[in-house]
Amino acid sequence: MKTGTREAMVLSEVLRSNACMIDHYNLYMTGCQDQQLRTILDRQQRHTLDSFQRLIQMMQSHGLDTSNIPLPTTMSVTAGGAQTTTGAAQYGTQWTGRQYGQQTGTTSYSAQYTAGSPAVGTQMTAGQPGTQAPTFNDRTISEGALLFHKSGAEINTRAALESSEPHIRNALTNMARNCIEMSYELYNYMSQRGWYQLPTTPQNFVTHSPTQQQYPPQ
Hints:
The protein is mainly alpha-helical. Helices cover 49% and strands 6% of the residues. It is built from 4 helices and 4 strands, in the order ααββββαα. The strands form 2 sheets. A two-stranded antiparallel sheet has the order 1-2. The protein has a two-stranded antiparallel ribbon with strand order 3-4. α1 packs antiparallel against α2 (35-61) and α3 (138-162) packs antiparallel against α4 (166-192). Residues 76-95 and 104-127 have low confidence and may be disordered.
C-alpha cells in the first residue's frame, strides 16, 4: 500500500474514534453527579478535542482529504484562557500537542483525588421511544470513559505502527501515550472509591522468581 493511502486510512480510524469519544463525554458530563469526576471528564475531553483539531490540520498540511471525517458536535474549546477552533492557525507537519499531565496556561492536566463517597446519578433503565434519555451513575460513566481510553491507546498504537510518515507516526505515538495517562487517571479515581478492585491472588497460584528458576543439568 502506498504511503499516503495508508496514513489516510489509519488517521481516519483514529479521528472517528476520537470524535465518538468527545460526543460521548458530552453525554457523560450531563449525567455526572460527582464534581471531581466532572472535572476529570471536562479536562480529558478538552485535551482530546485539542488533539483532534491538531491531527485534522496535520492531515490537511500533508494534502490528505478530511472532508469525510465525522466532526464532534463541539468544535471549539477554551483551554488555558485561549479559544481553540477548527480554523486555527496551521500547525504544519510537526506535532506540537501537549503531553497529557503537563501544565499549560491556567489549565492543569494533573488530577487531585480526595477520599470520600461521592453521590451517584440515577440508575440506567430501559427507555421507551419518546421518553427521556436514561442517565448513568458515576461508576458506569467512569467505566465507560476508561474503556474509551484503553481502546484509544490500542487504536493509536496500531495506527502508529502502520504509518511510515515520521511526523504522523510521532503524533500517533504521543496520542497513544496520552490515552494511557488518561486511563490511569480514571483508574485512580475508580480505585479510591472501590470501583476498580484487583482480584486477589489465588492461594494455589505458583510464581517463579529468577532466583528460583530451575535449569536442566548440563
